[in-house]
Amino acid sequence: MCPFPPFVDRLRAVSDVRPIQRVLVADRGEVGVRLLRVLEANGLEGIAVFSDADADAPWLDSAAYAVRIPPSPSGTLDPYMDPAGIVSAALDSGADAVHPGLHGLARSADFARTLHNVGLMWLGPRLDDLTWTVDRVLARARAREAGLEILPSSPLLFDPDAVEAWCERFGFPMVIRPGRRLAMRSRVVHDRSSARRAVAEAAEVGVFAERALPEARHVAVVVVGDGYGNAVHVGEHELSLLGPAGVRLRECPSAGVDGALRARIGQGAADFLAASRYFGVGAVHFLIGGDGLAWFLDVEPGLPEGFALHDKVYGVDLVGAQVALASGEELGWDQDDIAPDGCAAEVAIALRRRGRATRLEFADPACVDTAVSVGQRVDPARYPILARVRVSAPTRNAALVRLRANLEGAVVEGVETDLAACVELLADLAVWEGRTARRITDRR
Predict the structure, then answer these.
(1) I want to staple 231 with a disulfide (CB 3.0 to 4.6 A). Which of 274, 320, 382, 439 is the partner?
(2) Residue 188 belongs to domain spanning
(3) How many helices (H) and strands (E) does the chain have?
């Protein structure tokens, strides 16, 4: 796939940035497989990484080049989350650049800074973007300035006593949201003692007490910015339905967002990141209430987990755009020419227990991203996803039919997964009718 959609003028190169030829992908599992495939389709050499525990992983044979991550000195840190180990592997491999993937290091300013310091290019947001997006106080302030609506909430609280007044004001249930991304998960609390406990546990970073929506859809609008105040959006995907390893079902576009709302949240997200001079790919998250109002939730810097859905529906290549921008090319995308064509849906099949895969078959392997092969041992404590099954079709119903057929035709033996629950989800009338909003009691 060409890194630029057909509606884009050729991007204008900046002569003082060297070209990228070899990219180390600092992620594993089905995400690593997907990223390597996209990079190689763009004419780049993709480099896989592996820990000692994965040295015999069959999927590494499909990579043009693979490099070992040295164990951390303490031996206790997950090698794939060890910045020093990833940097060492990148230097050993002769990479020009590192794609951080989708895990925690992809949002780490310290990791990006280390790569810059050793002369490696970073395929992600700039350091200042990684810094302000993790700080919800700054992110909310910028969102308000850009005209986005924020749910009624307290200022940042550090003292459990301070939450009492907000319990009175908002009532229960109420959401306790950490002041920094990734510090802890947001919590729904139903009484004062739970609210006080949540504040105490996050006292180091502070929390917001937030009025809860009884029911809401969670959608992410994907935006690409050039760092000079220009940004475009490429639609939204919905991630309301959860499973044991995160989001179970994603859909692009969301069944609960009509054309007018899509234009409003899309332009609002693009204007917000443009005003912040955001660089690269990112996602602006919203909660959509039953009344159709959209409330700003968060900014996710870097490539979002559902990026491949947008590639299918909007005819873009978001990874290719990351490479182009990191190479010093200017954003030439025209918002007026970006429109959805069809629908895409994706299910993540999660592992439940350790085991050895003795049989692994899919109805249409072309729709599947997986790093697991027959005979391989898997452990959800090390990596929780067996595979992602992703389809596209002209209509939502056709996409769901195709997705369900792929899941019903899958055969997985030797390991326990939630495949049956995924099939059951796609037999639920509420899902077919687009009633996928979560009740507050289901939200985390």
Answers:
(1) 274
(2) 152-211
(3) 13, 21
Q: Phi/psi zone of residue 425: left (φ > 0), alpha (ψ -120 to 50 degrees), beta?
A: alpha
Q: What is the pLDDT along the chain (444 residues), one digit of tens a residue?
A: 333 343 333 333 333 466 899 999 999 999 999 999 999 999 999 999 999 989 988 888 878 899 999 988 877 788 999 999 999 999 999 999 999 999 889 999 999 999 999 999 999 999 999 999 999 999 999 999 999 999 999 999 999 999 999 999 999 999 999 999 876 889 999 999 999 999 999 989 999 999 999 999 999 999 999 999 999 999 999 999 998 888 999 999 999 999 999 999 999 999 999 999 999 999 999 999 999 999 999 999 999 999 999 999 999 999 999 999 999 988 778 899 899 999 999 999 999 999 999 999 999 999 999 999 999 999 999 999 999 999 999 999 999 999 999 999 999 999 999 999 999 999 999 999 999 998 765 444
**Residue 443 β-bridge partners:** none
Residues 234 and 332 placed together within one structural domain of the fold: yes
CATH number for the domain spanning 90: value is: 3.40.50.20
Q: End-to-end CA distance of the chain, in Å?
A: 37
Class of residue 19 by CB neighbours under 10 A (exposed 0-12, middle 13-18, buried 19+)? exposed
Q: Are 406 and 365 in contact (CB under 8 A)?
A: no
Please state the φ and ψ torsions of residue 318, each to the nearest 5 degrees.
-70, -35
